[in-house]
Write a structure and sequence with these properties.
Layout lengths: L2 E11 L8 E17 L3 E8 L11 H13 L4 E7 L10 H16 L6 H16 L5 H8 L2 E7 L2 E6 L5 E8 L5 H6 L7 H20 L2 H7 L6 H4 L6 H10 L4 E4 L6 E6 L1 H16 L5 E7 L6 E2 L2
Parallel strand pairs: 3-4
Antiparallel strand pairs: 1-2, 1-11, 2-4, 2-5, 5-6, 7-9, 7-10, 8-9
Helix pairs in contact: 1-2, 1-3, 2-3, 2-4, 3-4, 6-7, 9-10
Length: 307
């Protein structure tokens, strides 16, 4: 294989109760990237569209991952890379993760599928460190494995792929406001009351169980975050209004995607997702803040090869 083009999906991380440990991929939004073998060694970014990202191969999450993989494999060829960003960086939908995960899978294909998904996740985590300063796994693992994932452990890294109930849908709104990840991290509580911690652990268990048993009511009951959401929601204008109206319209639950500002809502079935979409859209249309909104199936496959 000398060339391929891929779709690397946006991802929702945390999923309310699963702070830094759960995530899922979406179908409707993502990046397109192409990879071409070159006779000269190393990596080169030839084109970036859709966002103003650096061409510096050491500072771009995608090229940094490709370079690391080529060096690790002692490849006798190089890779020319193109990136089209299908959604805005800083959205809370795993923009850097889509680049890093897509780069890992694309490079691996040209390397003859040398690495497994867990190894690809580790390479992609390096890209997250280049972009964000820390090797987080929830977004990149969701993009690579597809569907829902649980980061069971970081040391050693252990990723658990979870099933996706057939009728599960997501509606997500991205208000056009900026939230710095550092600010979102800084407001998190240093200590969590034991009662809240117990509830949070139980909700993670309930969400995982609900996914395995197609129990939508259990999924709904478990989409409660007592740790990050109370501290972060003030960064997102009209968050409580969006969440309240989404649930009234039939959403199983709603929360902050990553560190925000995107708000996600999980729904059962297309009709419910349609109603929730309209409710969220109407809620934000009354504000003076621009936004984008989409509805999607959960992407059970993850990164897809287009050609």
């Amino acid at each position: 294989m000398d060339y391929l083009k891929i779709f690397s999906p946006a991802t929702v991380a945390n999923v309310s109760c699963g702070f830094d440990s759960m995530g899922f991929a979406v179908d409707a939004v993502g990046d397109e990237m192409s990879f071409t073998k070159t006779s000269s060694k190393g990596v080169k970014i030839t084109t970036i569209t859709g966002a103003n990202l650096t061409y510096d191969i050491d500072k771009n999450a995608a090229s940094a991952v490709v370079q690391k993989m080529l060096n690790d494999a002692k490849a006798d060829f190089g890779i020319a890379l193109t990136i089209h960003k299908g959604f805005k960086p800083g959205s809370g939908l795993g923009s850097s993760a889509a680049s890093a995960a897509g780069a890992a899978l694309g490079a691996n294909k040209l390397l003859g599928n040398r690495y497994n998904n867990l190894e690809l996740t580790k390479f992609a985590m390096y890209g997250e460190e280049v972009a964000c300063g820390s090797q987080i796994a929830d977004n990149v693992a969701a993009a690579i494995y597809g569907g829902f994932i649980l980061v069971r452990s970081y040391n050693p890294l252990e990723i658990v792929k979870l099933p996706v109930p057939k009728e599960l849908r997501v509606v997500a709104i991205h208000p056009q406001v900026e939230i710095k990840t550092k600010d979102a991290r800084d407001v998190l509580p240093a200590n969590v009351p034991l009662k809240n911690a117990i509830t949070q652990w139980a909700n993670v268990g309930g969400l995982v169980s609900g996914l395995f048993t197609d129990d939508y009511q259990l999924i709904s009951n478990s989409l409660v975050d007592l740790v990050a959401e109370p501290a972060r929601k003030s960064f997102i204008p009209f968050f409580d209004d969006v969440k309240t109206n989404a649930v009234k319209a039939g959403a199983l639950g709603a929360g902050i995607s990553g560190s925000g500002p995107t708000i996600f809502a999980l729904c059962k079935g297309d009709k419910s997702a349609e109603n929730v979409y309209k409710s969220i859209q109407e809620t934000y249309a009354k504000t003076a803040i621009d936004f984008t909104i989409f509805t999607s199936k959960v992407n059970a496959e993850g990164i897809k090869i287009l050609e």
